[in-house]
Backbone:
């Protein structure tokens, strides 16, 4: 019977069995020196998304692949007579709660180390003792993602044996440096999320027309995410038509698309925690007006100029950083006297978060994944245009567009809309 219970637990716990998580922990341990890393998983409440589904915080997931609440990670590098240490601490079972949320693995279950991929798995109640045993003294430093006033740290400090000399420091910058360069598993998941996002944009091209609501368009494209094997949108989908196209983070999606509108569609799938981010701007009636075409081409030229200017190890994405791609794109737009209508940055990193961790002033290296997304927004003309793609810096230093399968030139977009197959949205939904 116990064997059957453990098999059921293993099947219910969605943990990617990959050596990549162990490799990340070892890389981080190599940067710790005398310091010790202590991270806490999200609680059940902290990790709830809008649909009531638990999602682990990004740093904890990056190092563990563990997507259950209430756990903790203790990590220390080998030093003198101290061996390399990695321990995953799991909370005790709550059988009553599990009837609502499903079975959870406990540290005392047979096979816990194999299932989680850790050297050691211990009950959460042992965390204080284990921490005290490896924190160097005097003046020991613990890197953590929590502050003194938060519950996990207060819980630790209530222990009689917890030393007063321990200094807490922020772990996030150290982890962010590692997260900036994606490994093969991460790149594969971002590709999958991007492929689903491109498929969604193609579905949008087939469906767009006057009379369709922004919300219908968003729903149709989010369905494509799931068809592509992804679980959820990486952020609130943006479908902004007419005046709404000039609002950067418009997400109400409450309007109805009108003849002659341009429609900004900014969407991204999330696949196994990894995001994508792709924007296209479409003409509702199938063809851009001359003015819309003019603005669109300027934005596209700005994006292409930034792509052409890219140099691995030199280019940056920070708005005020040296050798920034932002200035290249801005100069193209300002050459037409429209710089004041380009009101946001050009790029951000993409990974476990759609705006992923990383220093925008750091030169882009192989393994970095980021966007290039110039835009022009003219409220008085009800014209907003943004073109955004997700790019990967390859090992040879070249730039790969992961999302360019979504039609992007004026000719490609107009041809895709005017030669499309019959409506992807049911006729009755537009007669309400």
Residues:
């Amino acid at each position: 019977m116990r064997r059957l219970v453990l098999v059921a637990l293993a099947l219910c716990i969605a943990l990617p069995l990959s050596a990549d998580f162990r490799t990340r922990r070892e890389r981080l341990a190599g940067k710790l020196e005398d310091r010790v890393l202590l991270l806490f998983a999200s609680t059940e409440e902290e990790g709830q998304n809008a649909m009531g589904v638990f999602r682990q915080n990004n740093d904890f997931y990056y190092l563990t692949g563990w997507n259950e609440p209430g756990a903790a990670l203790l990590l220390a590098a080998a030093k003198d007579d101290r061996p390399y240490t990695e321990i995953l601490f799991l909370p005790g079972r709550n059988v009553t709660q599990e009837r609502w949320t499903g079975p959870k693995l406990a540290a005392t279950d047979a096979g816990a180390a194999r299932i989680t991929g850790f050297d050691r798995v211990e009950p959460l109640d042992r965390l204080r003792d284990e921490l005290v045993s490896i924190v160097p003294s005097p003046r020991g430093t613990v890197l953590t993602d929590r502050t003194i006033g938060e519950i996990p740290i207060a819980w630790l400090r209530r222990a009689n044996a917890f030393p007063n000399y321990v200094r807490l420091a922020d772990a996030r910058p150290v982890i962010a440096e590692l997260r900036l360069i994606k490994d093969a598993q991460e790149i594969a998941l971002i590709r999958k999320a991007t492929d689903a996002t491109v498929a969604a944009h193609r579905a949008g091209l087939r469906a767009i027309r006057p009379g369709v609501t922004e919300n219908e368009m968003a729903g149709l494209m989010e369905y494509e995410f799931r068809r592509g094997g992804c679980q959820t949108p990486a952020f609130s989908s943006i479908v902004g038509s007419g005046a709404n196209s000039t609002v950067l983070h418009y997400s109400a999606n409450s309007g109805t698309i009108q003849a002659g509108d341009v429609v900004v569609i900014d969407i991204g799938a999330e696949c196994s925690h990894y995001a994508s981010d792709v924007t296209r701007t479409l003409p509702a009636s199938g063809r851009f007006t001359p003015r819309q075409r003019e603005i669109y081409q300027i934005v596209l030229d700005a994006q292409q100029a930034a792509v052409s200017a890219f140099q691995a190890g030199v280019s940056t994405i920070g708005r005020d950083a040296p050798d920034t791609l932002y200035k290249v794109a801005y100069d193209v737009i300002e050459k037409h006297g429209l710089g004041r209508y380009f009101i946001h940055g050009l790029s951000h990193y993409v990974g476990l978060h759609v705006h992923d961790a990383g220093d925008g002033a750091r030169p882009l290296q192989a393994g970095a994944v980021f966007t290039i997304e110039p835009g022009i927004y003219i409220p008085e003309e009800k014209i907003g245009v943004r073109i955004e793609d997700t790019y990967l810096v390859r090992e040879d230093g070249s730039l790969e567009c992961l999302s360019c399968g979504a039609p992007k030139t004026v000719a490609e977009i107009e041809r895709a809309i005017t030669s499309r197959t019959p409506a992807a949205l049911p006729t009755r939904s537009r007669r309400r």
